[in-house]
Structure formats: structure tokens, C-alpha cells
């Protein structure tokens, strides 16, 4: 399970991640000794768990998380890939990066401060990115002596926030990352339900990508022209979802050309089929003009082909967007020129509602826009296929990523369609 941890500054994210690593015995002895030495030099009374994820020197000096820190841990029931994301507003774009592939999210809330602006922003991001499972961990319960009444107040606020952004299925658990109560160790008697770690072990797994429709983005056309293979033509790429088998009929999009799969070449030679996550080369029965940027779909369930993308953008650049700004749009392996239309609606984090605000998008803003494309692209609604429903908006001059986009988009209301 891919897990992302988010929350406001000083809510205890890095300490919680360190607690998970510590209590699952996922720390090497020499690493523990080295960080214990650093903790003493910083004047800490004991082992500073946050140092297990705050790896950059700037992070340790400031006592904050700046970059996304990835760690791995496992329990007897499940393995985890964990992303600890920054809490500062200016680094919300890193949270988008960490959550874009997550199967579950843990959003921390300081019980003393309750729901913050960042809590609302992170809840909106998890909803937009369609993270299947969201758990709110009400942290620092030891600071209020595990006051049940205060916990209940925070839970009520959390559920209101979740409902406004369209998160219907959430879990709320009380924890103390510092002491470990509620994380792996049980909390007081009044706490009902499993600990955070037990809950993460029990969450249903995401529906396998293998069960979804075939989406194969062509990365490269292989034409070696050697004596052994004078007529070899293969389409190399990664199976984003679904399964492709020899003999299957496929459609290349956006060109619409059809053929059948004659052979599949994998790392160890020919194979009968390839499933989601595998990088292979497909050989088609017909000589088709299919190049990088095309998406192979099953003939029965094809991706949509559009020249206009209507969706939601999370603006990641410090430079504000402009109406009719010329950009590059990257959808899968295809990059094409685009023109951003005016902002149709903006998500107001404080009020948790869409507002008809046409002002340019600025750093960390979320807005609905329409992007005109120079060429047709194969796109799915993000709610149906995360791999072919997401896209990037890029500055054509500097190559800087300006925004992350979700085709269709969803936040606080039914899914919009392309």
C-alpha cells in the first residue's frame, strides 16, 4: 500500500512517520545510533523520531519537512511505501506529488488547534486526487491528557470538512505520535476501534489496475533493422492498466488505427500476456503509423479523444497563470501545445466552496479551467482512470511544471465529465 502523510506545520507528521518506522522495527541499528547522537547534539531529551524522515540539512536545521521523504516499512500483514509531505503552505505542491499515486492518506490534526486551513486544503487535494482511503489522525492527545470531549469536538469539525470536499468514507483516530499511544500501542479505555497501524493494515486494497480497461502509452518505436530482425517494429511502453494478450484487438488513439497484437516481448523474451505495471514491447499484426504519444486501448473500452480538456488545476508555480497563456500539456507520453482559458471557478479553502472568481491562479490555488489543445489527445476522466486522466501543464520556455491537472475533476460535487 502506498501511503501519504500530510498535515499542517508542527502537527507531528515526521514524528508519526518515525514512530511507525520505530514500532515496526524498520530502523537499522547503525541508523538508530547515528540519529540518537544527532538528537543529543540538538539538545533533545530522547531520540527525536522526526529525524528518521527529515533528511535534508535544511530540514534538520529548521525542524521542518521541505521535500517529500519516502520510507518503507512492513508489518506481518502488509508492506507500505510511505511519503512524508511538507506542511508549509508554500510546499503544498510537494503534497500533490506525494499523494498523486497514494492508495491511502493520513491527515494529521493537532488536537489543541483543531482543523486548520492546511487541513481543509489537504482534504481537498486528497479528494481531487481520488485517494481511495483517507484517515484523519488527531495527534498530540497526550497534550490534552486524552480529553475525550475535546477529541469529539475535533471529530465533528473533521467530518464537516470531509463532507464539503466530497470525502464520504473517512476514519478518525486519536493518537500520540510522541508516546506511541493510538499508533501501534492501544490508547485509553474510552478509545473505540483499532489503532492507526491496525487500521492501515485492514484498509481494503485498491482495485487492481489489472481489472481496469487496457491503457498502454507508447514511449518509443523500436526499429533495430539488424540482420536477425530486418523488419522488426515494436511499440515499447508500460502497461498503465488492464491486460494485453497476444491476439487481442487494440485501437491506437488518438489516430484511431486498429490492429491485433501479434507478439509481446518482455525482458526475458516473448510472453503470452502483459499486465498493469509491466514494461514490454508490443508487435502489431499491421504496419501502422503509430508513434510516441499514442495510447493503445482495448477495442471494447476505448479512451476518449479530445482537443479541449475541461478539468481542475492545482497551480504549482510561484508565477501566476495568465488568461490565454501558451503552455505545453503533457498527457501520458504525449506533449502538445495548449492555450489556457480563463478561470471558470476557484476553490476557496476557507469557505470550502466553488466561487466564480476569474482572477489568475496563483501558487497552491485550485481552479476549474478549459485548455485548448493544438492536437487531439487520448484522455479519460480522472475518476475512471488516474493514469490517463491526469496531466501536467508546463512552461514552454523554462520547462518548469506550472500545474497538475485532473481531467473532469471532482471536489465537493458529482464528477464532471470531459
TrEMBL record:
Signal peptide: none annotated. Keywords: ATP-binding, GTP-binding, Nucleotide-binding, Nucleotidyltransferase, Transferase. Residues 1-210 form the Tr-type G domain. CDD domains: CysN_ATPS (cd04166), CysN_NodQ_II (cd03695), CysN_NoDQ_III (cd04095). It comes from the Bacteria. Its EC number is 2.7.7.4. GO terms for biological process: sulfur compound metabolic process. GO terms for molecular function: ATP binding; GTP binding; GTPase activity; sulfate adenylyltransferase (ATP) activity. SUPFAM superfamilies: EF-Tu/eEF-1alpha/eIF2-gamma C-terminal domain, P-loop containing nucleoside triphosphate hydrolases, Translation proteins. Pfam families: GTP-eEF1A_C, GTP_EFTU. This is sulfate adenylyltransferase. It comes from Luteipulveratus mongoliensis.
Amino acid at each position: 500500500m502506498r501511503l501519504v502523510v500530510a498535515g499542517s506545520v508542527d502537527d507531528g507528521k515526521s514524528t508519526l512517520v518515525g514512530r511507525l518506522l520505530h514500532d515496526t522495527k524498520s530502523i537499522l541499528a547503525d541508523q538508530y545510533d547515528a540519529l540518537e547522537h544527532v538528537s543529543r547534539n540538538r539538545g533533545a531529551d530522547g531520540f527525536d523520531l522526526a529525524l528518521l524522515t527529515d533528511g535534508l540539512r535544511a530540514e534538520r536545521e529548521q525542524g521542518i519537512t521541505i521535500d517529500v521523504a519516502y520510507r518503507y516499512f512492513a508489518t506481518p500483514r502488509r508492506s507500505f511505501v510511505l511519503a512524508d509531505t511538507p506542511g508549509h503552505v508554500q510546499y503544498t505542491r510537494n503534497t500533490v506529488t506525494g499523494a498523486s499515486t497514494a492508495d491511502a492518506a493520513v491527515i494529521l490534526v493537532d488536537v489543541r488547534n483543531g482543523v486548520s486551513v492546511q487541513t481543509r486544503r489537504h482534504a481537498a487535494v486528497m479528494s481531487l486526487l481520488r485517494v481511495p482511503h483517507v484517515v484523519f489522525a488527531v495527534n498530540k492527545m497526550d497534550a490534552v491528557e486524552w480529553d475525550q470531549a475535546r477529541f469529539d469536538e475535533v471529530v465533528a469539525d473533521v467530518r464537516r470538512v470531509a463532507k464539503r470536499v466530497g470525502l464520504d468514507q473517512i476514519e478518525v483516530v486519536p493518537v500520540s505520535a510522541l508516546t506511541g499511544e493510538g499508533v501501534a500501542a492501544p490508547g485509553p479505555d474510552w478509545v473505540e476501534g483499532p489503532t492507526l497501524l491496525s487500521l492501515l493494515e485492514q484498509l481494503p486494497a485498491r482495485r487492481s489496475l489489472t481489472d481496469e480497461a487496457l491503457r498502454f502509452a507508447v514511449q518509443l518505436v523500436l526499429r533495430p533493422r539488424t540482420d536477425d530482425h530486418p523488419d522488426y517494429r515494436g511499440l515499447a511502453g508500460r502497461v498503465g492498466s488492464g491486460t494485453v494478450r497476444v491476439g487481442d484487438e487494440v485501437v491506437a488513439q488518438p489516430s484511431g488505427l486498429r490492429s491485433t497484437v501479434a507478439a509481446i516481448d518482455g525482458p526475458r523474451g516473448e510472453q503470452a500476456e502483459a499486465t498493469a505495471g509491466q514494461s514490454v514491447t508490443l508487435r502489431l499484426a499491421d504496419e501502422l503509423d503509430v508513434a510516441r504519444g499514442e495510447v493503445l486501448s482495448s477495442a471494447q473500452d476505448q479512451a476518449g479523444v479530445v482537443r479541449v480538456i475541461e478539468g481542475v488545476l492545482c497551480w504549482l508555480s510561484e508565477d501566476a497563470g495568465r488568461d490565454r497563456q501558451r503552455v505545453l500539456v503533457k498527457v501520458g507520453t504525449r506533449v502538445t501545445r495548449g492555450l489556457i482559458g480563463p478561470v471558470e471557478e476557484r476553490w476557496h479553502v476557507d469557505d470550502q466552496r466553488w466561487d466564480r472568481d476569474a482572477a489568475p491562479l496563483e501558487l497552491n490555488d485550485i481552479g476549474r479551467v478549459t485548455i485548448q489543445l493544438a492536437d487531439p489527445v487520448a484522455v479519460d476522466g480522472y475518476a475512471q482512470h488516474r493514469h490517463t486522466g491526469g496531466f501536467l501543464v508546463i512552461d514552454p520556455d523554462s520547462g518548469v511544471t506550472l500545474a497538475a491537472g485532473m481531467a473532469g475533476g471532482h471536489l465537493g460535487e458529482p464528477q464532471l465529465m470531459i
